[in-house]
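Form 12-C: Joint structure prediction
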Amino acid sequence: MRPADANIVDAAIPMMPQDGGGVEHGSVARLARFFDRHPRLRLASFLCGPGAWLIVAYLGSLVLMLLTSLYGLNDFTGKVDRSRTTLENYRQVFSSNGPYLAKIVRTIGIAAAVTVIDIVMALPLAFFIAKVLSHRWRRFGIVAVLMPLWASYIVKGYAWRTLLDPAGGVFRKTFHVSPGFGQTGLIMLLAYLWLPYMVLPIVAGLERLPDSLLAASADLGGRNTRTLRSIVLPLLVPAIAAGSIFTFSLSLGDYIAVGLVGGTTSVIGSVVNSNISTNLPFAAAMAAASIVVVGAYLTGARRLGAFDNL
Amino acid sequence: MTLTTRAKLLLATLSGLVLIVLYGPLLVIAVQSLNSSAAGAWPPTGLTFKWWTKAWGNGGWTDALRYSLLVALVATVVALALGTLASFAVYRFKFFGRNVISFLIVLPIALPGIVTGIALHSAFDRLDISLGFLTIVVGHATFCIVVVYNNVIARLRRSSPNIEEASADLGANPFQTFAHITFPALRTAMLAGAMLAFALSFDEVVVTTFTSGARQTLPRWILDNVFRGKQITVVNVVATAVVLLSIIPVWVVQRLTDGGSAGR
Amino acid sequence: MKSTKRSVAFATVGVLALAACGSSAKSTTAGTTAAGTAGAGTPTFNIPKVPMLDQLGAGEGALDIVVWAGYTEDGTNDPKVDWVKPFEKKTGCVVAAKTAGTSDEMVSLIQSGGYDGLSASGDASLRLIVGGDVAPVNTTLVPSYTNIQDFLKNRPWNSANGQMYGIPHGWGANVLMYNKSVVTTAPDSWSVVFDPASPYKGKITAYDSPIYIADAALYLSKTKPELKITNPYALDQAQFDASVALLKAQKPLIGEYWSDYTKYQQAVTSGSIVLGTSWQVIQNALTAQKPPVGVASVIPKEGATGWSDTWMVASKAKHPNCMYMWMDWIASGPINEQVASYFGEAPASKGACTDADGKTLCADYHADDKAYSDTIHYWTTPTKTCLDGRGDICVPYASWVQAWDAIKG
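Section 2 - Result
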């Protein structure tokens, strides 16, 4: 069912009481009318659940934690020293001759590479599932994309160790080459882990793309590639943006995969993880850096019109 | 369908390659679960069912699996409700701080898990809530909301508000419009979000460490067994078994929920 | 009206939510300033006053602990491996054990509260002591303590200012392990992992933790006597910088750093790692697997670092009596033997080495070999107050962590 089909609206009308509220639906209808007249309250009720949740359970403590990035550290106890405020932690994170800026840049590079690889791999598969397979087979397609998610992330990480091992791994034994453990291997593993998070949103996006649009383009003489480029891709941008937010963010925060196949690579997550119990203020400053990166990514996506142009 | 046969063939080939990428590592896990080398030597040194027998007698993972499924299910339901509501709020209304919301919702997955974990842990500690089922669900829902939210809002941005206006013009109240117009249009997006949220919760270890009580979730059990234990072999069996077992519920969910677009 | 009420209720929830956050902003901080007094030999720490249990009461019926995986087996992983249920039966304390993956996770969990105790490794114990997160332990309330190997009592990683802060559990050395088919002559010095011209470049591994800096310091204490390093965990800035420089130079030699058994075992089996620091338990697993990998290990002439786990009581423990009962249980000979044998470590109790199995175990892991233990420099959290009593001039652990970030690049 899609709203563009007029018959759905027709079908729905008889079910709607014309007077705006039968006896049994009285209170519901009143509530509905009330919200209709008070859009602000409607907004409040929409936001209340998620808002309270995020504010209380999470953001409150997150903000408190990030605020500690402005404090110093007591060298004797290793605890936060709240008597002293300082920007030293941020200076350290963003210092051009320290190790941290390079790690931030590297992490962004890894997350970007993972995202691009996932878009490239997801597009044909999603297109195939949504537009080539028949309805019955589409279900198989989606199940096939989802199944790998149930094998634990850690186990998949170890399986990739078997693939990548520079001395006796599957790649080495079969193709006589292997990227080994390091940044390349890490990008491969992350792209693998998060691929379904790109495919599914695109499939969902394509399902909403009316076949009639494709047909119209073809009728007008558009070739497949052209239809793809000028009709389908622009309409898919929100779905790709949704997927890319997953792949980018999940790669940005990861540090377990890094430990498994990253060799000697170290990323933002590893730094936060290793410092958090010895130097909370510094770990908080480093976490703030990834918040800035995500903010920039979302803003960039919005500027590019990923969200609102449609 | 307007695609030429050649285009279809090309798509099929590319999709086949991607599926090989998706399933290659799973095949490795399955082979390793039968590999007689405990350290997973490649090529396998021999065939054995020893690890499967050993896993059969191990009660730890079945209990952890049950717990993980329950946690993921409840967390997904919560995330589905909150994520959908949030996406409506952001899509429908113009209000101050609207852009900030999508940013805040993404944070839990973009920050290293340990940050979310410790933030939540200290919140629970301050509010004197003891760690257990409830706290894991809260923790997981926090980072699962984004998955639902992003999928639903992408769909909302693709759908035309005219249709809902038409519904309202024809006398439907907002709830009826939601039930008959909006929800059917969103169903597949919500389903995609829910399934990914479920998977994310089912796999999470770090936030879980800081929000769970003593009862282990499956990923936590797995981590313990590969990290300091000596049971990667059993872990391979468990991963293979879970993938095989997952076919059934995923299939059922798919079947139950996609009746809506059956008329295609 | 119902709807208005509901909206009001929503609004109230929102306000309450915000209020809750506002009030929680006044978080409690028990900041204490510590000042060590300079003096030769042993350092004096200024530790927040935490009361010690002076009398054992009745069990509280529950026990919440943070442990290494494998320390609290209750038969679910293997019905034959169970020392938790008998404890519960005996004391009525129901055990809820939370496993942690790293020392940092353990410290974070204990600091944020809700636990009665933990099995702390040496890179965690002293920070918990100095931070006031754990309580001194009244060893007279733990009968098993008398049977603990004497060389594990009153050591810098489990005591401070002459007071025990825990019950020793088990230990092991960070030995130099090598693949005999590749490294044909047994190395006798750590130089094989530090020398830039090492023939095993790219196939060397090192422990992935800031505490590994001590391994470099130990090596320098013998090869560069002019640095005057006496304790690899008590480094002043110059000694510390030299150790970090050595590790930066070592990085190109490293294939990968390790922190878990499985990864290590796989890498040695495939041949991508042939040499590096290791634990006895990993060596045993490699030689026991089928087909086995021929590995051997030595304690090089410079000595080795090592770890020793200690059961500690959280200062905010809700069930201190159960925690004491647990410490007595786990340190008692037969149980200690069972745990050590399952986990793969040297048991701390002399009573673990008495029966036939115990004798083999203790021989395998050098458990009652004082001379062997003396060659080990056990992990101890580096503090600003130098562990060798030189005063407050040493580099604290937080800086070790940051230096480790820099080493990994």
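Section 3 - Comments
Chain C touches chain A through 67 residues (CB under 8 Å). Chain C has 14 helices and 15 strands.
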